[in-house]
Amino acid sequence: MTAPVTVSVTRHVDPSRTSEMLAWVQAGTSLAEKFDGFLGSGWVRPSEESPDWHMLYRFADADALAVWEASPQRAWWLEAAQGDVEEKQRERRTGIEGWFDEPASVESLSAAPVAPPRWKQMVVIFLVFLPLSLTANVIASHTIADWPLVPRVVLVTTVMTPLMTYVFLPWITRKMSWWLHR
Fold first, then answer.
1. Which helix (H) or strand (E) is 42 found in, with range?
2. Would you say residue 115 has pLDDT above 80?
3. What is the pLDDT of residue 148?
């Protein structure tokens, strides 16, 4: 059985080129979406002023990823940012280790961090999930309370999942790293 592959790339970008960078990232996603096995992508920055952009994309397996990485579309897309974007780090991971777990396999320019104990991971996730879940459910009870259960839960989950994945888990992981990796 083949495992999905997630690629994490840190790129250094001139902060004065934010608009162009946003368009470039969206163009890359639009191109990748057309390839078989593409499972999704996203990006985050540590802050508005940060020149570092952390980008993730995921394919169903290594073969699907290889087709994208060897494609003329990707080459054209990378060339479009030549001189404006500098790749600083790239990791290729299989499994679900995105936030905490020890990778099943990693190709990286830097060593992968050691995963904290699972109970610490659980505590940190709980610290974010509980208030976010309570907030989402309070809002839902005031705005879509008359919806049937399944569509209501689907909407709340659809909103919460990206917030947890791209905003709150990275934030709490940075804030609690002193404890997670002690």
1. strand 38-44
2. no
3. 94
Structure-block tokens of residue 56: 């993730």
Strand order in the sheet with 52-59: 38-44, 52-59, 5-13, 85-94, 106-108
Residue-range domain boundaries for the chain: 5-108, 118-180
Residue 53, Cβ density class (10 Å: 0-12 exposed, 13-18 middle, ≥19 buried) = buried
Query: Which residue has tokens 């479009």?
Result: 80
For residue 127, the cross-strand partners are none
Answer yes or no: are the C-beta atoms of 101 and 25 closer than 8 Å. Answer: no
- The confidence score (pLDDT) of residue 92 equals 81
Strands (DSSP E) contained in 95-138 are: 106-108
Q: Are 117 and 109 in contact (CB under 8 A)?
A: no
- Residues 6-59: tens digit of each pLDDT: 888 888 888 788 888 888 888 999 999 999 999 888 888 877 778 888 888 888
Q: To 10 degrees, what angle do helices 149-162 and 118-143 make?
A: 130
> Which CATH architecture is the domain 5-108 placed in?
2-Layer Sandwich (3.30)
Phi, psi at 100, each rounded to 5°: -125, -40
Query: What's at 107, amino acid-wise?
Result: E
Rounded CA-CA distance 99/161 in Å is 14
